[in-house]
Design goal:
Layout lengths: L6 H22 L6 H26 L5 H28 L3 H32 L7 H19 L4 H4 L3 H25 L8
Helix pairs in contact: 1-2, 1-3, 2-3, 2-5, 3-4, 3-5, 4-7, 5-7
Length: about 200
């Protein structure tokens, strides 16, 4: 890994390290009033910031490396899937059964989308070397997941939403729809490069 730990790669590694911190604070601080919600929310925001910054810095200053191409998407998937599963467990522990039953479908949609798009990328890049850049829908999906995750965590601190969970249901719907439509967008971009007869 000589010469690979530039700023973008360091940010990606920090993102990987922050994910278990987020999970730990969310689950083990759940009985701490106020701060038990604020701390994991802050950790998640910091995690998301590393995701926003590493790619921009790498492209702007031409710091793209093979290690970066490996660690950045890995860190992204680690962050998204770990946080979704942790929040699902958190809801169940808190006794929010109905909310958890709805959210499990959102988690399933996100999981299937990530696995599908990643698989397509690997096949297309391996056979033809084509790399389809992140689309606007993909970026919207990422932002919706980040904002939605924070909203789900801090909702209990907002009295008007704490009982009916309107904020959570709204952002769960937004996350599901943006995930589905961005997945369809990537399918349209990648499928033409795959020969089903080979």
């Amino acid at each position: 890994m000589k010469g690979s730990l530039n700023i973008p790669n360091t940010l990606s590694i920090i993102r990987v390290m922050l994910v278990p911190v987020f999970v730990a604070t969310l689950l083990f601080m759940r009985d701490v009033e106020v701060w038990g919600l604020i701390v994991p929310a802050i950790v998640y925001v910091l995690t998301g910031l590393t995701d926003m910054l590493d790619g921009k810095i790498a492209r702007k200053y031409n710091l793209v490396t093979d290690f970066g191409k490996f660690i950045d998407p890995l860190a992204d998937k680690f962050m998204v899937l770990s946080s979704m599963i942790a929040i699902l467990v958190w809801m169940i522990i808190r006794g929010e059964t109905t909310l958890a039953l709805v959210f499990v479908w959102v988690v399933l949609v996100i999981l299937l989308r990530e696995l599908g798009v990643t698989s397509l990328r690997l096949v297309v890049a391996g056979k033809s070397g084509i790399v389809v850049a992140a689309s606007m829908l993909g970026k919207i999906k990422t932002v919706s997941q980040m904002v939605g995750t924070v909203a789900l965590i801090i909702e209990p601190l907002i009295p008007v939403f704490a009982e009916n969970h309107i904020l959570s249901y709204f952002f769960m719907a937004v996350m599901a729809f943006t995930t589905i439509f961005s997945g369809i967008d990537y399918l349209k971009a990648y499928l033409p490069h795959i020969d089903s007869n080979k």
